[in-house]
Amino acid sequence: MSAAALPGIRPRVLLHIVAAGLRGHRRRSLVTMFVMSLACLVVVDTSGRTDATRRTLLAALEAPALRVVRIVDRAGSAGLSAATVEQLRALGSVEWAIGLGQVGPIGRNATLAASRGGFGADAVGVRAYVGDLFGGPLLRLASGRRPEIGEAVVGAAAARALGLADGFGTVEDDRQAQVAVVGVVEADRGVEGLDAYALVRGGPGTAVTELLVLLRTSRDVEPFVARLGDFVPSREGPLGIERAAELAALTEALAADAGALDAAVLWGALATTAALVAALRFGAVDERRREFGLRRSQGATRSTIGAIVVLESAILGGIGVVLGAAVGAALVVVQTGLAPDPVLLAAVGWLLALAAVAGSVPAAVAAAWRDPVEVLRTI
Amino acid sequence: MIGPRLLVRSLRFGYRDVPGLIVDLDLSVAAGEMVAVRGPSGSGKSTLLYLLGLYLRPDGGSIRLDGQETTSLGDRERSRLRAHRIGFVFQDAGLHPDASLVDNVAEGAFYGGASYGAARARALALMTRYGIAGLAERRAVQVSGGEAQRAALCRALVRDPSLVLADEPTGNLDPENAAAVIEGLRAAADDGAGVVVATHSPAVAEACDRTVLLA
To answer: Each residue of B178-187: pLDDT tens digit?
Structure first.
């Protein structure tokens, strides 16, 4: 049989040798494992906390109030209508939309007005609306029922002004036209201006001069504003557009900055880990010159020697990474109350283990290429 | 007809600072033959064994092991040949100090593809033959020099080699252990191996079939 065809070491035997090497050099093995654990702990803890902070901030920036766009047709010439509202509601990026008419005649509590013999009671603005007032998260029916066409609900402030604590009554304007009030609505941040109005549900022909649109995410705001012209029938008049654009920009910046910080921490940790492992493994290889020389003298190939060194590092790195990740994850939970992203944990673990293996390669090459005769002469 | 286990022709080798250490050396070792290599210190005895053990590459000439030319082989093939066909006994046993004696002996078969169990079984059989089976699980640092050298001999033989090389194998031993090692080498030759022993000892040389002198 030619030399090339002769069988080499079996993988299980190689693992026996690796295990014996780790047991035989406990101190160095523990130090290497400790370094790996520490590196993993630092990265997982730092990245985990950064990620938790980012998630908390992003969640705050995704509050509904910051996703509202208000479009005002001050001149009343844009041709906005109930149909425009329906078009907007059909968009995938739109979570909720209503249209509002102009602030109409001043309305007063008809009963109070009558009892006081005229217009002496507090007054509120009356506005028509189209769309599902309660279809989004910003407005809630506090009491009463949803209005039919021609009926009204009032904001909490308006209810107080009108003296309609239970939300039922009648509002009449200065022309003594009366509208039934069937409920009180609570308005959240973003649409809090509606709190002061009596809102009358309008029909399909209702004239709309203001749109309130809630986008699904803050990142949808700018693209929506950019496309808005597609839904405005007439572009002659200027439209006032109000939105929390700076917050959307902040969202992007925050995500990018946090990502850059994560990457910097990770790359730093990888480089440090690889350097430390390389130094430790070089030390171990130097300490074990005689052992590797003996193995070569017994027929171990260079690749076998290299594999021993790399496998030892992989095992130490693997154990160190698991321990470090576990402790790091526990620290993140204690510090932030949020569990680290498992994908982040897995990615950090793999990369650090790879860094450990990569760091051991120079030592493995040095061990494999050491001249066995140099060792044999000292035996 | 079976050819020689080892056939060396016109072998030349020198170190950078010691050129021409070995010049046109011819040597043939038959199966069952035990050859002593003698010469003063610095004459190249150990270097010759390293060349025959395929640790060093000669500057010229030919080394055939079981008829196969080895000087043109790469490191991997030479390692494979060592793992399968060459046993080496050093002056100091050269064992892994923290490993058990049986694992040290079994290592001699690991790199030739033996399983862990099979290597240990063969190691224990050889250790029984050479009277050290009772020390099998002792760490190498816990046995005497003679016992360690017998273990080193077992390690060299565990792969059933064609060629056994021994570099001053009795140099550190008392006469009783030295005799045991010489007996072991002779037994390896009787089993069909070619044996080359570098030695200063006239007693070892006498136990060999013939002696090659290096100047």
So the answer is: 999 999 999 9
The residue among B10, B57, B27, B16 whose CA lies nearest residue B163 is B27
Give the Cβ contact number of residue A339 at 10 Å: 13
Asked if A302 and A17 count as a contact pair (C-beta separation under 8 A), the reply is no
Task: For residue A16, give both structure tokens.
Answer: 């026996």
- The whole-angstrom separation of Cα B215 and Cα B213 is 6
Binning pLDDT at 50, 70 and 90, where does residue B197 land? Answer: very high
Q: Which chain B residues are Cβ-neighbours of A15 within 8 angstroms?
A: none
Per-residue pLDDT averaged across A265-289, rounded?
A: 83
Q: Which residue of B92, B112, B115 is in closest CB contact with A299?
A: B112
The counts of H helices and E strands in chain A are 11, 11
What are residue A179's DSSP bridge partners?
A: A171
Put simply, the answer to whether A302 touches B98 (Cβ < 8 Å) is no
Q: Is A291 in the B-facing interface, judged by CB distances under 8 Å?
A: yes
A195-205 pLDDT, tens digit per residue, is 989 999 998 88
List B residues 50-69 in contact with A (Cβ-Cβ < 8 A): 50, 53, 55-56, 68
The domain B31-41+74-213 is classified under which CATH number: 3.40.50.2000, 3.55.40.10, 3.40.50.300, 3.40.50.970?
A: 3.40.50.300
- A81-124 per-position pLDDT tens digit: 999 999 999 999 999 999 999 877 677 776 766 565 544 457 88
Q: Where are the domains of chain A?
A: 10-60+251-376, 74-238
What does the mean pLDDT of chain B come to? 95
